[in-house]
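Complex record, two chains
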Amino acid sequence: MSLTGFILRRMMALVLLLLAVSVLVFLGCEVLPGDVAQVALGQFATPENVAALRTQMGLDEPAALRYLAWLAGVLQGDWGTSIVSRLPVATMMSERLANTAMLAGVTTLIAVPLALALGIRMAISAGGPVDRVLTVVVLALSATPEFLVATLAVLFFALHLQWLPTISYLSPGSGWESTARALALPAGTLVLVVSAQIARMTRSIITNILSYPYIEMAMLKGVPVHLIVARHALLNAIGPIVNVVALNVAYLVSGIVVVETVFAYPGLARLMIDAVQSRDFPVVQACALIFCASYVVLTLLADIIARLCDPRAVATEG
Amino acid sequence: MTDKRLPIPRLHAQPRQSLIGRRAFNAGLFAGGLATMLPLGTRSAQAQETPKRGGNVRLAVVQQTSSDTFDSARYDKGNDYIRGTSVFSYLTRINQAGEAVPEVATEWEPNAEGTRWSFKFRQGITFSDGAPLTAEDIIFSIMRHKDEAVASTAKQLVENITSVTADGSDGFVVELASPDVDLPILVGLFQFALVKAGTTDFSMPVGTGAFTVEEFQPGLRTVLVRNPNYWKSGQPYIDRFEMFPIPDNAARANALLSGDVDLVLELRGNGIEEVEKSDVADVFVTESTRYTAIQAMMDRMPSSNVDLTLSMAYLIDRQRMLDTVMRGYGTIANDHPIGPSSPYYNADLEQRSYDLDKAKFHFQKSGIGNAAFEMSVSDAVIYSVDMGQLLQREASRIGMNLSIRREPAESYWSVVAGQKPYATTNFHPRPTYNMLLNLAWQKGAVWNFSHYDNERLQALINESRGTLDMDLRKQQYGEIQSILHNSGAIIIPCFLSYVDGVSKKVKGLTPLQIGNLSGFNFTDKIWLDA
């Protein structure tokens, strides 16, 4: 199967998957107790108020019709209007999507090279004192919950040393310096957590490869360790490693609610939780689809990279 | 029918107000005694200093929600109220004595029956787009809450209003179905922001307030800039006001301590102590009659068992709750909603307190034995989780088999409160006690979570609304308190003060009992002392 065919098939699968996800999310929203009108009016809801708001929001139409109307809109590139804020969903998402992409991007750029270097270093001296110390540190970091790292970082860098702001409040049009200061703590926290994960996986993947007979053969031939790792082990390890990296980056896009909360960073994960709580279906859908797509696209990218780095795959296609 | 017999302390008459006749003040009538709660000492000496112009103030709010709005008909939370008082003007506002005082409306007078109110309003006020404020705009701003399609949160409040008509170019007349001495307070509520006639889109609002909107992103931030044409001369003092959410309690307190924000709403727990210790910020305490209650539904078991509820009332260690959960910021309550510093307060009722013997007595009388029952608490109801834990520990000491169920916050008001036998509820004070009682204790009222039906109580609530004789009013309110105290329908252990955080740089705030940070109405009064 050619690479283009492979990509095409995966993209089609992605479309079907997104459709399935949107149905599931819609059903989930319907099953939750209390609809958007009820939640919006809260404690102070009167039955007449709820009914009026429901009509105004178009909630008195059958569920299937509402879903199809939403789907038709999306197919034409219209993400719809938030039921709660009455703003276009695209407008609501754009700034948060940019924020999330920025935080995930910065974190990835720092964490991935750092984690790979650490993982390889540990793998080379597996069992030695350097490996042991690093393993303990990395294990400890990956077992530490983010909110603890984040809170300690705030206490130390923001309140004690007063180097950095306690919250990551990004004013529109703020310069790169204030943006960098705002990003420092959340990105730092995520780098610690994410690179610990990637480093551990890198170490175990490479250590595993280093135990293969062909590596033993190379060693017996007298190839220096760094060359063995660089030429023989790493190339074969790229496939599994990029998959680990892809999963971690996808996590940075969708799963960093805790960090967003501690630093009051306005990102997508928090928006989705708010939207679920207020039963704001179009926003929940948009977030869910973005998260789902980011997972699929990132693993697809990982697979493509793995194939390109796999001489056997290249040879059969040639 | 202005009531000159009532002793109305004119506490905070500012120079601007003193230009207006005494008639306008007294027309506000005595509002029900929420006021006068504040000891005189809490009003600071700041008011004496001359405000300085300029600067940028940042406020951290609690709720991060895309339901943020500038449509005053949909207001239901502090975030919105603050935006409203900043960008819009109001006809009246409430002062520390609980009276309505002039804002855009300069004076008002009821007819002899109290069913027809004539208002005059200030001339020369313009909207931020240059259009003048007219009687037509005011009529629209009140009457739109009656429109079914608007689904206003103030719909119930305007039901008594039959019409609003223009009276010349500087006045308007409000007709009521039944007399209401508190109408001037009602039209100053947050929902009654003055908007342009015909407005339906509030995404970039046009108001006559102290600020105009530079940027508004629901759930993200609101950026307001000074309106140079504001009708209060010299105000606002600050150039720019920004608000954004920090939902995490610790992060909010930290942001205040590090100077990243100047004001924060709702300090909780350790955050209160940290700010108390700090030399950059102060806690800003507003005594209030906000309360978290346990409500017993009177039309189902086991909560209709009055002795069981009274037994629980004696099990709550109120002093301990005040000291540990609320860090001392509150006052002890006596299972009814009237605050101890109200002139209506019934001092003859014995103060209920932690008493294991009485608890046991009522528990045995209830005959419930060791049958298990539940009480619902939630993060939707402030301090209810802590209250539940305190109660449960004591309950086990007399063999009461009470379990605490923690319910999800977002569906609490639709599927728990008023649906489950024992549920905690939370009420903010209303401008008058009568409004609160009317909303919460009339038969069939939506907020009558106890489904309590007591004809005598309902009659007293209705009578007291039109009673002008202070002694008779006191009597009526005294009986209301005694009925609720003994009803077994509600347990109110404590009144909760509002505790906010304010940077030492920010001046000009005075506590107002109806809400956080000067009753959510402060942006045109604060200034920065750099």
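Note: Chain B touches chain A through 50 residues (CB under 8 Å).
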